[in-house]
């Protein structure tokens, strides 16, 4: 992909570092997903003794917060902006508009704005 920093105002080094951290966090969530689901099901079970359930609560609380899927936030892959996200393209609405305006998104054609025909 060509360097688009002049269009989106992104520093390439920051993008690479943020992308690596995002991939790492998503991998940690995926790796520990089953363990978290088992602990949550133990906690919510009414048939298990209270000691087992409280031990599961402590064990879940001891896990790092990066294991939680709630910590995953969809960010723009270019600017790391978290709000106004176009999920199909994994970018913010601002970056999406800038790149679409310059015809840098495959499959999108810029719409020509003209005067509306009056009947």
UniProtKB/TrEMBL annotation:
GO terms for biological process: translation. It comes from the Eukaryota. Keywords: Ribonucleoprotein, Ribosomal protein. Gene3D superfamilies: 1.10.287.1480. InterPro entries: Ribosomal_uS14 (IPR001209). GO terms for molecular function: structural constituent of ribosome. Belongs to the universal ribosomal protein uS14 family. This is Ribosomal protein S14. The lineage of its organism: Eukaryota, Rhodophyta, Stylonematophyceae, Stylonematales, Stylonemataceae.
């Amino acid at each position: 992909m060509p360097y688009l920093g002049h269009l989106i105002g992104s520093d390439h080094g920051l993008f690479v570092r943020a992308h690596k951290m995002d991939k790492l966090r998503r991998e940690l969530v995926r790796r520990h997903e089953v363990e978290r689901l088992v602990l949550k099901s133990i906690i919510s079970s009414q048939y298990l003794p209270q000691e087992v359930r409280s031990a599961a609560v402590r064990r879940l609380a001891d896990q790092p917060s990066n294991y939680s899927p709630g910590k995953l936030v969809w960010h723009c892959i270019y600017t790391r902006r978290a709000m106004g996200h176009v999920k199909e393209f994994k970018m913010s609405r601002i970056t999406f508009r800038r790149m679409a305006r310059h015809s840098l998104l495959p499959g999108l054609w810029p719409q020509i704005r003209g005067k509306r025909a009056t009947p």
